[in-house]
Each structure stands twice: as C-alpha cells, then as structure tokens.
C-alpha cells in the first residue's frame, strides 16, 4: 500500500489548460472528456483534478475538485481524461455547461492514488453515486494485474448510479443497490458486505463515495481485518496542500490524533486510520 | 523588461529584492508552492502563523466559499514552534527563499516565548506578529482589537527579540480605528505593518440551518474584501507615512497589487489567490513590475503612496 | 402557497404583514420602483436617509463596482426634511405602502429636530435612525462608532419622538464590538436594530492613480459583505435575543434572506440587489416564503434565530 | 423640447429577456442585434437600456448602460433593437462575447429621448466614438419630420468611428474627424462648429459622446445661442433612478445648483443647463 502520511503534494501536479472534447449527459451526471496533454501520463486511479470555474469575472474564487474517472494517452487527441460531474452548486453547473472546444484551467494530477497490490488478489470495489467514477479505471488496472474485481454500486435512486457499459467489461461481477429500489436491489452497498467477506470473496476493499458510506465500510472492514482503501471527500479550498481546510482526523503513530490534509495525504486513505467518528467534531 | 526598474523594498532593516510575498496561512511552509515556482523568485515566504504547542485546529468544515471570497476557520493548526524550526525552516532557508516567520499566541507571554525561540534562528528576514488571535486572558478578545493588548504583544516581542530582526505587526480590520492601533504598535516597536487580516464573517448552512463552519465564525478573505484593505492601507499610510506596509486582502492580479502600492503598501502578500492559481504570487509580481514600468516609474518606492500626492495641496 | 404561512413581523409596536423591505438609499422614495411592482406588496419602503437641509452630496464619480460588490459615496444628497415631507411622504402613503423614514444628522441635536418633524406625520410605521454619519462635533467620527455618541443620538430621538413610533437604530459594521453598540442604543430606547450599513472601503483608479471616488472613500455593499452582515446579525441576536433586527447586506435571493433570518433577523432589507433587479425585493420575499414553507416552518417567527438553537445546550 | 427635470423614471421601463439575433464586429465595436419584443414600441432615439452582465455566478453586480442605436418593430422577429458596444472592461467584453441565441436580461427603455422639433429645422448631429450609435436612428426620425440633417463624427482613430452604410443614407452630409488623421479630417468635431453656425447652417445641435466633447460643444452652442441637446454619460449603478450615483450639476430655476440623475433626467439634457465645469467637483 502507498505510504499514507507523506505530507507532500503529488510531485507531478501542474497547471494545464485543457480543452473540452465532449460533454454528454449520462443519467444525472455529465461525462466530460478533456484533452489534457502530457500530464495524463502521471495520472493514476484515485488522483483528482482541481478546476477553475465560472470564467474570468466569476464570483467563485475557489477551484472545484473532481476525481479522474478514466484516462487515455493514446488516440487522436493525445492525452485525454474523463470526468463524471454531478450538478450540485454553481461551479459544477458551470462545468457541465461548457461546450465542446471550451478551455478549462485545471491542476492535475492531485492527491494519492489507490495502492495496487503486487500480487493478484480478490478486490471489491464499492462506489456511491458519482463515487464510482474512478473505480472503473481502477478496475481495469487491477484486472491487468491479474486481480479479480467485483463491484458494488449504490445510490439513492437509479439516475444516480454511474455505470457505463464499457466500464462493466472490466469487472467480474457488478451489483447495484438503490435506496428506493428503482434499479438493482433495494438497500445499501454495505448490506451484502459481511457475507461476502465471510464467504472469503474479499482480500481488499476499494471505495469511493459519500463520507457516511466510507465510514460504514470502514467499520465492517476493520471488524473483519480487511484492508480498505477509500477515497475521501472533504471541502477543499486549494487542493494543493497550502490552506489546511481539507483535514481529516487520523490515528497517528503515537496514538494521538493527527489532522492530515486529504488533498495531499488523500483522497485515498487507509480507512482504518481515519477517525470517522471525529470527522467534523471539535478536538 | 528592457527598462530598468528598482523593484526592491524594505521593512525595517530587512531589504528584499522583490516586493511580492505569500500571505501567512496561504502557503503553508512553502514546500507545496515550490513545485510550481522557485521560492527565491518572489519577495519571500510568510509562513503560516506558528504557536508554541502543536495544535489540531478547528473542526471541519473549515471553509465556505462566499461571493468573490471565502471564509476559513483553520484555528491555527500547526506542529508547534519546535517541530517547525526543526523541520520547516531549515528546508525553506535552503531553497534560498527569504523567510518571514509569522507567530501567534494566546497570551502576551506566549508571543515573547516565540520571539525568544526565533532569536537564534539563522536565515530569517523578519517576524510577522499575527495579533488577530483571541487573548485567552481577556475574554478571548482579539489582541489586535484593543490598543493596549496590541501594544503589549509587540512590546514583549520587541524586548525578547532584541534589535535585529524586523517586526511586522499584522492588524485586524475589525476595529473602529485601525490607524490608532497602528500608531500603538509602531510606538511599541513594530518596524512595519501587515494590513489586513481577514474580516470576521459567518455563513449559515440553509440545509442544516446551523452555522456552516465547524468553528461557527471564520475569516473572510479574497477579492470581496479588497476595498476594505485598500482603505485600511490608505488610512494607515496617511497617519504613518514612513512606516512600511505589507498590503494584502484580495489581491488577484498586478493591477490589484498596484492599487495597494499607490495607497501606501511597500510590499504585497498574496493569499487566497494562490488557492485558485498556484502561480499567483509570481504572476502578480511580474504584472506589477510591468504596470510600474508602463506608468513610468523607475522604482517601486516612487509609487508607494502615490495616490496621496494631492493630500498636502488640497488639505482634505 | 397552499400551506398557511404567517409571514408577518414586528418592530416594536409596528406590525408588518410581510417581512422584506427596501434598504435606505436603495429605493429613493419608492416612486421609481413602484413602476415595477406595487409598493404595498412588500414589507415596506425604507426611504433614503433624510437630513434637515437640502444637500447636494458628494462629487462624482459616486460609485465603483468591486468584486461582488460596489462602493458608493452619495454623501446623503437629498431635498431636506421639509420638501421630503411635503412631496414624497404623502405620495408614498397614498400608495398603501408601509413607510419607514430614515433620518440622518450631523449633530445629536439635528437628529432630535428631525424626530420632532416626524412626530405629527401620519402614515409612518417606524423611524430608522442612520447613525453611520460623521459627527461634526467630534472630529467627523461616525456616531455609530462610539457607544456614547450612538446612545446620545437615540436618546435624543426617543425623547423628542414620544413613545409611539418605533425606532430602528441602524448600526455600522466598522466597529470593534457591534454587540456593545447594540446594547447601548437599545438601552437608549431603540425598539429594533438595522444591521448592517456599508463597510468603509476605497478603490484607487489605476489610470489616474488617485482614489476613484469623488469622495475618496465609499460604502461597500452587495454580496461581498454578506458574511460580515450574517456574523453581525448572529452576534447581536445572541447578545440581545429579544430585539428585532432588520437584516441587510448583500441579500440577493431568498436563500440569502433565509440565512439572515436563521441568524436572527426579523425582517430583511434589500439594497444593492435592486440595482441589478428592480423586482428584487418582491422576488426575494416570495423566495423566502417558499423556503420557509419547504423547511416546514408555519411562521416566520419560528425561523428567527433558529441557527442559535444549539447554543443553550452546548454552552459555547 | 422635452421637459428637463422631471425626476421621473421613463414610464415605459420594464425588465425583459432579449435574445441575441446577431453579433458582428464593426471596426473596434460590436453591433449586437437583439430581439426584445413589444417594448421596442416605446423606445425612442436617446433612450438607453441597462443590461445584466456576466451570467448567474458573476462578480459583476451592476447593470451596464448602452444607448439604443436603432430599433425596428417590423420584420420576421418582431421588435428588434441594435446596440453598438465598445469593449471596455469585463462587462462589455462579456456582452460582445455573447453568441447568437443567448438570452440577455435588460431593462428598457430608460431615460429621456432626444426632443424632436415640431417644425422642420436644420439639425447638426455630432457624435464621438460609439456616441454616434443613437444618432443614426435620430437622423432617420428627424428626416421623416422634414428636417435637414448634417452629421459630424469624431474619434481618436479610424477604427473608433462608427458610421454604418445604411446610416449614412439618412443624413444630408457627413464629416469625419480623427485626432490622428487616420480617416477623414485630422482634428476634432468642434473645429468646424463656429463656422457652420456663422454660416447659418445650424438651428439645433444634437450630440452624444465623451463628456469633454459635450462640454466643448455646449460652450460654443451657448455662445452662439444655439439649442444643444446632448446625451451624457455618467457612471450608473442602477439606471432607474434609485441610487443617486449618476448625478450631474444643473443650473436650477432659482439659480442654485441641483444635482439631477442623468439616468432619468437624462441621458438627453439641455447642454446649456449642465454646469460642465462643476461635474465631478466638490460642491
Ligand atoms: C477529492 C474530491 C473528488 C471529487 N470528485 C468528484 C467527482 O468525480 N464528481 C463530482 O461530481 N463531484 C466530485 N467531488 C465533489 C465536487 O468537488 C463538488 O460537488 C463541487 O465542488 C461542488 O461545487 P459547486 O460549485 O457545484 O457547489 P457549491 O456548493 O456551490 O460549492 C461551494 C463550495 O463548497 C465546496 N463543495 C461543495 N460540495 C462539495 C463536496 N461534495 N466535496 C468537496 N467540496 C464541496 C466547493 O468546492 C466550493 O468550494 C469531489 C470532491 C473531492 C474533494
Ligand atoms: C447612458 C449611457 C449610454 C451608454 N451607451 C453606450 C453605448 O452605446 N456603447 C458603449 O459601448 N458604451 C456605452 N456606454 C458606456 C458603457 O456603459 C460602459 O462602457 C460600460 O458600462 C463599461 O462596463 P465594463 O464592465 O465593460 O467596464 P468596467 O470599467 O469594468 O466597469 C466598471 C463599472 O464602471 C461603469 N462604467 C465604466 N465605464 C463607464 C462609462 N463610460 N460610462 C458609464 N459607466 C461606466 C460600469 O457600468 C461598471 O459599473 C453608455 C453609458 C451610459 C451611462
Ligand atoms: C486559509 C487561510 C488561512 C490563514 N491563516 C493565517 C494565519 O495563520 N496567520 C495570519 O496572520 N493570517 C492568516 N490568514 C490571513 C491571510 O494571511 C490574509 O491576511 C488574508 O487572507 C487576506 O488576504 P487574501 O485575501 O489575499 O487571502 C489566512 C487566510 C486564509 C484564507
Ligand atoms: C447607493 C447606496 C446608497 C445608500 N444610502 C443609504 C442611506 O442614505 N442611509 C442608510 O442608512 N443606508 C444607506 N445605504 C446602505 C444600505 O441601506 C444598506 O445598509 C447597505 O447597502 C447593505 O445592503 P445591500 O448590500 O443590500 O445594499 C446605501 C447603500 C447604497 C448602495
Ligand atoms: S485543500 Fe488546501 S490543504 Fe487541502
Ligand atoms: S443610475 Fe441610479 S439613480 Fe441614476
């Protein structure tokens, strides 16, 4: 696994101007393909990008963070990167309204990647909402290393499940859970987890999604002594480690709490180390 | 640039070849930004305010974006002065960066202790004293808000630090009369002033219907506050024309920096702008140089406070 | 709306069926806005601060746009109280609008004179006392900046006005401790508080390299200052939970208004937003009503200060 | 002539959503054609519009004022309005970047129109820079009332002269002055003025352009007792009479100075009444 508390910015991070190659609506999300050039070579599953939103006279002064969904450094455009964007507030809405050809100012790659096991293992990938975005690229990579990849996706409703056809190819199994039962099984991604682990189907869990989901998975993983790498999501003002807004409480080596920056020591973290019950609590 | 421009500036006996700095708390200890540009290509790095002990800071969420600004409530998270001096400063000095260490305390005594620790550190250019901190000995009121407590902190630091390292006192705009506070701290031994720290603000989360920030209130920074910063710089320069001012608050480009120089700033700190543009500090410095040349200045010094040039004539 | 919502509010003994008002100086005397919506469909019209004598105000330029805000330096241009009472008020009252007259003076005595003139005027709902004006008897310092002068103005107005018409004291955010000023003016007889007036700011014109505004400094308004306004409202409501607050400062939509209500405002004034959207006041009022209903409130009153609900429990 | 100090907002002013029909570069300006609907019926030469700029998350909180250049209430689109926009700061640059089909939030018509004489007169129209924009519509109207219309346009350089071919048809003569001589005569619009008046060619002057130009014309018009209607340009925060930022010092009936709002008592004003030397001076 990757070292967790490096306290160092991704050494490949740079500011680039990307061009929108396509922008398609997929369910409640937008799939945005960007031409980003050379930088793609250093992007790994789990990394994210930080995007300037709103144009030159925007009232929005902070970048927005988006997970890198998939990358390609071949093809007619050179390096391309795909983002899956949920319309949330004004920044994401601006982004999904960008037409083909628009220029996007982004900093990439940022943060830690998912750690890739050196031996083939049985990996369970769990995604919540747009949290599935980086998991398909991860699945491909794991598969290419001989891992077996199972995937569970969950969301409140069908339109919030992101599971592209191409992506499904890289997984051995895919289960979908929705809270309203509008697609897949009615329930939550954590429902089948204990059983799968008991059945010996899981060596390592990779997850990405809402913090509550990550916390719940962490509890189960810890109880069952399964390694759990999760990509967290805290409000970030800078994305490059200089503002200290994105911190999470971590169990330090000495047993004390440490507040680490999730933009450089994350987003991918060891779920066991995060003190989930203390996130957002006064110290 | 083909035209010669003397772009240097001074704060007390500290001379800087370049006038644009990072802002405290907006560059950590410089390491991350050094990936985007060499730290010795700007005026200097002002480090995040350091306290005596390690601190975890305030609960998250620690930030909220606001129109043309943001609120932060970091709560001075940091490793404490000893770890800071052991790990961060040597690295920073080794990059060739000019270093201004920002210190923060909860009592007058704590500031003095911090100053004592800095005395023997080599490679520092100046100390910025962040007095916009709650004074635990006086109902948590911020030192910078009262002339007496502001003065007491600076006097303590001056005494302990000895005469060499220049002191830049960083003031809060949340006061009735910022020029009066400025006079006190200068009188107490500050060589320069940093203007302005953030404004106290709050955002209510309309979903939870509670204050959005973990720390309830936060500091407002970014372009939204620039008119307040320019006004504060202008007023203080008018009151104390010979005291160098490190101007900050919403500087996003060379023209914003130029505004502050004209109002009376001898140097500029760039804070929030680095969050959206990691290269902001160098870019702004370059743009400021261009503007000065375009306007026919041959030195930064000529432009400092230039907007006041009618004052003597017209009275006002 | 299908759900019943009690949207009424009170300031002292003045009851208003609706809670969103214009802001002083941002609706003149209502005539122009009446072309866009009937003035009796909002809480009321707060008129531009009126002084005793006619005033020409400050030289132009009187405004500068700033990031998410603007500076103004109107300098209280106006026709003087007599012409105002003869021409503007009768028309305004005839529209069925509820009217809050804002008054401004240069001495404590002037405020009292203005109050005396208002005593016998019929159709007024309340008086807003704009104490963010320079006190010519005390080095031009703003009344609202010092507890003593703020108190003196309100005491004078209260005494002269008699007991009927509610007094809303409008405070400046440019003070070290706004809750302290609030306490003074309430003690002196104010029935409510208007929070906040503009922040003092400045823009330097980089072409002329002089202050851009004819009056040099100006008042900063608009969304940029909203976090400061919310914080001031929150602090004052915490200190004086039973005093109604007319909240303002950068309210642009229903959600902004709701934030202020949660922080402790009993009513909302809309200023700068009317410049870009003449219908802003009615629109914001409608949006606020929708939000209250969506959140399950059956009256505005329930929501006032709702963001403080944990305070008693947690201490803080 | 129109009453000058009415102190009343244009009674037809309303907020409308316009659609960009075309947006063409013409010299240094952009000619923007808007579909505005019915409101066009109430727009007269001299009136202006106030436009919201920058979109929903813009840091620009104030409307921008633009003179109505020409209007048409016939044609396939219903009411249309043309604006001539000079790229200046961020607001005008946003406006000239709006593509066909974009929606524009505008308030129109605003301000006073040029007064139209009841008898046919010899009218001299003087425009500086984009100040010529409203003069062509005015010229057509004057011509339709039997007036003779001469026009003088001036600017610092050729690219800042706005004089469309169609517009030229409605004037009897057109002289162009540029300060650098890059087109027309080298000099200023005021250069030939005394002579034209002396020659008895001018009954009334209409002008629009920079304040300095209007002041200079006013001095000459006053000296020669020629009626001069000028469209002024002061910084405006609201455009609808509620903010008091746009004021100009006017000689009041009682000889005292009055500060009138140029957004409702202007932009068209009697040049003789404006106290030009006191504009921007402390009172
Ligand atoms: C590491 C990381 C990866 C992410 N990946 C994706 C992704 O792949 N797809 C996607 O749709 N979204 C992703 N998000 C969430 C995305 O950043 C937010 O939805 C977005 O910032 C919201 O901005 P806004 O202007 O639309 O909303 P607003 O609510 O207007 O934003 C206001 C401020 O709050 C911050 N903010 C609001 N919501 C969030 C959030 N959920 N997380 C962090 N900051 C937030 C914004 O960045 C902004 O500074 C990711 C966030 C992080 C931290
Ligand atoms: C009645 C009237 C009619 C006008 N007609 C035209 C026209 O037909 N074509 C055209 O190109 N321009 C016209 N202008 C000028 C136009 O309004 C400004 O160029 C524009 O507002 C500049 O905005 P900006 O964001 O590009 O510049 P910025 O400088 O960024 O604007 C900042 C602020 O200053 C104000 N401002 C800046 N310059 C001016 C100015 N010259 N006059 C008034 N306010 C200004 C802006 O409105 C804004 O509030 C007119 C102005 C007025 C008052
Ligand atoms: C996230 C953040 C953290 C900050 N931390 C500090 C700090 O530790 N010490 C300090 O003196 N100022 C601190 N500041 C204030 C800045 O140094 C600066 O005074 C202020 O942000 C205004 O400048 P800006 O608008 O360019 O950011 C902080 C500001 C931000 C945004
Ligand atoms: C152009 C302008 C004129 C103003 N004039 C007055 C005034 O005469 N009296 C007063 O009490 N406040 C005045 N104000 C302040 C507003 O009433 C209000 O307190 C402030 O603008 C904040 O609200 P806003 O951001 O919604 O505009 C004025 C504000 C503006 C922008
Ligand atoms: S987002 Fe700034 S340190 Fe992580
Ligand atoms: S622009 Fe507001 S009154 Fe004229």
Automatic annotation (TrEMBL), chains A, D:
Domain Dihydroorotate dehydrogenase electron transfer subunit iron-sulphur cluster binding: 233-274
Gene3D superfamilies cross-referenced by the UniProt entry: Dihydroorotate dehydrogenase, electron transfer subunit, Nucleotide-binding domain of ferredoxin-NADP reductase (FNR) module, Translation factors
Pfam families documented for this protein: DHODB_Fe-S_bind
Cofactor: [2Fe-2S] cluster
Record keywords: 2Fe-2S, Electron transport, FAD, Flavoprotein, Iron, Iron-sulfur, Metal-binding, Transport
Residues of the signal peptide: none
Single GO BP term: pyrimidine nucleotide biosynthetic process
GO molecular function: 2 iron, 2 sulfur cluster binding; flavin adenine dinucleotide binding; metal ion binding
InterPro entries (alphabetical): Cyt_c3_hydrogenase_gsu (IPR012165), Dihydroorotate_DH_ele_sf (IPR037117), Dihydroorotate_DH_Fe-S-bd (IPR019480), FNR_nucleotide-bd (IPR039261), PyrK_electron_transfer (IPR050353), Riboflavin_synthase-like_b-brl (IPR017938)
Similarity comment text for this entry: Belongs to the PyrK family.
PANTHER family hit by this protein: DIHYDROOROTATE DEHYDROGENASE B (NAD(+)), ELECTRON TRANSFER SUBUNIT, DIHYDROOROTATE DEHYDROGENASE B (NAD(+)), ELECTRON TRANSFER SUBUNIT-RELATED
Protein name per Swiss-Prot or TrEMBL: Unannotated protein
Record organism: freshwater metagenome
From TrEMBL, chains B, C:
GO function term, MF aspect, one: dihydroorotate dehydrogenase activity
Family (UniProt): Belongs to the dihydroorotate dehydrogenase family. Type 1 subfamily.
Gene Ontology annotations of biological process type: 'de novo' pyrimidine nucleobase biosynthetic process; 'de novo' UMP biosynthetic process
Pathway listed: Pyrimidine metabolism; UMP biosynthesis via de novo pathway
PROSITE patterns given in the database record: DHODEHASE_2
Cross-referenced Gene3D superfamilies: Aldolase class I (3.20.20.70)
Name of the protein: Unannotated protein
HAMAP family: DHO_dh_type1
Annotated compartments: Cytoplasm
GO cellular component, one term: cytoplasm
Domain Dihydroorotate dehydrogenase catalytic: 9-292
Cofactor needs: FMN
Keywords, comma-separated and alphabetical: Cytoplasm, Flavoprotein, FMN, Oxidoreductase, Pyrimidine biosynthesis
């Amino acid at each position: 696994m990757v070292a967790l508390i490096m306290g160092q910015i991704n050494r490949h991070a740079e500011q680039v101007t990307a061009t929108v190659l396509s922008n398609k609506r997929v369910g409640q999300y937008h799939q945005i393909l960007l031409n980003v050039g050379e930088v793609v070579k250093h992007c790994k599953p789990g990394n994210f990008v930080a995007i300037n939103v709103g144009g030159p006279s925007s009232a929005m002064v902070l970048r927005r963070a988006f997970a890198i969904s998939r990358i390609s450094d071949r093809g007619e455009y050179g390096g391309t990167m795909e983002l899956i964007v949920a319309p949330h507030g004004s920044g994401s809405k601006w982004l999904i309204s960008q037409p083909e050809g628009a220029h996007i100012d982004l900093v990439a790659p940022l943060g830690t990647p998912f750690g890739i096991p050196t031996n083939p293992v049985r990996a369970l990938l769990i995604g919540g909402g747009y949290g599935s975005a980086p998991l398909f690229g991860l699945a491909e990579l794991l598969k290419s290393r001989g891992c077996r990849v199972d995937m569970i996706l969950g969301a409140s409703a069908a339109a919030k499940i992101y599971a592209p056809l191409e992506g499904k190819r890289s997984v051995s199994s895919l289960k979908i859970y929705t809270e309203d039962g509008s697609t897949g099984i009615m329930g939550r991604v954590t429902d089948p987890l204990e059983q799968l682990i008991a059945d010996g189907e899981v060596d390592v869990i990779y997850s990405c999604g809402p913090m509550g989901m990550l916390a719940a998975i962490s509890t189960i993983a810890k109880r069952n002594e399964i390694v759990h790498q999760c990509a967290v999501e805290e409000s970030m003002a800078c994305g490059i480690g200089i503002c200290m807004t994105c911190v999470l409480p971590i169990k330090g080596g000495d047993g004390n709490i440490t507040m680490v920056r999730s933009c450089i020591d994350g987003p991918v973290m060891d779920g066991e180390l995060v003190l989930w019950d203390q996130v957002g609590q006064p110290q | 640039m083909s035209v010669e421009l003397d772009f240097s500036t001074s704060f007390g006996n500290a001379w800087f070849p370049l006038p644009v700095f990072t802002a405290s708390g907006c560059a950590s200890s410089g390491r991350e930004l050094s990936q985007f540009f060499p730290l010795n290509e700007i005026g200097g790095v002002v480090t995040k305010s350091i306290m005596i002990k390690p601190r975890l800071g305030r609960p998250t969420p620690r930030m909220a974006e606001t129109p043309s600004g943001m609120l932060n409530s970091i709560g001075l998270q940091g490793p404490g002065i000893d770890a800071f001096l052991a790990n961060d400063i040597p690295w920073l000095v080794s990059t060739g960066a000019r270093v201004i260490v920002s210190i923060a305390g909860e009592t007058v005594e704590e500031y003095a202790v911090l100053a004592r620790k800095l005395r023997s550190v080599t490679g520092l250019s100046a100390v910025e004293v962040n007095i916009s901190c709650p004074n635990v000995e006086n109902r948590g009121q911020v030192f910078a808000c009262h002339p007496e407590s502001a003065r007491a902190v600076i006097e303590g630091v001056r005494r302990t630090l000895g005469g060499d390292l220049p002191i830049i006192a960083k003031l809060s705009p949340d006061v009735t009369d910022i020029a009066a506070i400025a006079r006190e701290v200068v009188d107490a031994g500050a060589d320069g002033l940093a203007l302005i720290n953030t404004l106290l603000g709050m955002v209510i989360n309309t979903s939870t219907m509670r204050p959005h920030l973990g720390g309830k209130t936060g500091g407002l920074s970014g372009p939204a506050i620039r008119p307040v910063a320019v006004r504060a710089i202008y007023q203080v320069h008018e009151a104390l024309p010979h005291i160098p001012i490190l101007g900050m608050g919403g500087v996003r480009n060379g023209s914003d920096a130029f505004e502050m120089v004209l109002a009376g700033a001898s140097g500029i700190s760039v804070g929030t702008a680095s969050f959206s543009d990691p290269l902001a500090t160098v870019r702004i410095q370059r743009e400021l140089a261009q503007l000065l040349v375009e306007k026919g200045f041959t030195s930064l010094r000529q432009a400092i406070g230039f907007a006041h040039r009618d004052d003597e004539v017209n009275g006002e």
